[in-house]
Amino acid sequence: MSLIQFYNVTKVYQPHITALDDISVKIDKGEFVFLVGPSGAGKTTFIRLLFREEVPTRGQILIGGRSIARLKRREVPFLRRNIGIVFQDFRLLPEWTVFENVAFALRVIEVSPREIKPRVEKALERVGLSNRARMFPHQLSGGEQQRAAIARAIVNNPRILVADEPTGNLDPATSREIMKLLEEINYQGTTVIMATHAWDIVNSMRKRVIALQQGRLVRDDREGAYGYEA
Ligand SMILES: Nc1ncnc2c1ncn2[C@@H]1O[C@H](COP(=O)(O)OP(=O)(O)OP(=O)(O)O)[C@@H](O)[C@H]1O
């Protein structure tokens, strides 16, 4: 059974913008998937539906075989524990150190204080930021800030890591390092879904490519390319 299953998913924003139009797709455990398409194609909407920030207008989404539409309000946090998320603009809290930013993801799910330190240290080690734990976001480079955001997203060992344009604010060399890191996380078993406009990255990595256009799924290639130079 696939980890993520979309069945005829349509999302209409009121009054009449069809952001996703009858999408059916399956993503297996351990896959690395690029979500591509022009601005407004529906990539962010796809991601929002995944972690239930939005609900579909029609259709069904199953994660781990469970319909996420039917989750009760108190069950939503359990879904979100299984999904780590990374954004283009990092979204670190500026008043907090790197350590505290990462620890926060554990505090909100009430991990016992004793466990927090070793788990944060391990996550920072995985992203190569052990020596930046006591620094504040503004003291870090963009690439380091994104690493900190990735540490926060994986500290809870989610099954799925979703990245919405994670290299959008980074230069090409730093972007490649971030991609290497996401690939490593993927090799260690986490399913990675990344929305991007970075056609050069997509073309060089030869992963699965799902292309959206005006809310429709127009292409799904196993070892795909971006398709055009955006
Ligand atoms: N909350 C909302 N209310 C109304 N319309 C929305 C909302 N969110 C997105 N849309 C519309 O839905 C469509 C898809 O938007 P979405 O953000 O999913 O595209 P995208 O592929 O992520 O674009 P980009 O690459 O620019 O981030 C767009 O036409 C957008 O204007």
Give the fraction of residues assigned to helices.
25-40%
Give the biggest beta sheet: 6 strands, mixed
- Strand arrangement in the largest pleated sheet: 6-7-8-3-9-10
Could you give the count of β-strands? 10
- Any idea how many domains? 2
Shape: globular
Report Rg. 17 Å
Descriptive key words:
single chain, 230 residues, alpha/beta, Rossmann fold, 2 domains, six-stranded mixed sheet, four-stranded antiparallel sheet, 10 strands, 27% strand, globular, binds adenosine-5'-triphosphate, Cell division ATP-binding protein FtsE, ATP-binding, nucleotide-binding
What's the structural blueprint in terms of helices and strands?
Elements: E1 4-13, E2 17-27, E3 32-36, H1 43-50, E4 58-63, E5 66-67, H2 76-81, E6 83-87, H3 98-107, H4 113-126, H5 142-154, E7 160-164, H6 172-187, E8 191-195, H7 199-205, E9 208-213, E10 216-221
Parallel strand pairs: 3-8, 3-9, 6-7, 7-8
Antiparallel strand pairs: 1-2, 1-4, 4-5, 9-10
Helix pairs in contact: 3-4, 3-5, 4-5, 5-6
The structure holds adenosine-5'-triphosphate.
Adenosine-5'-triphosphate binds next to strand 2 and helix 1.
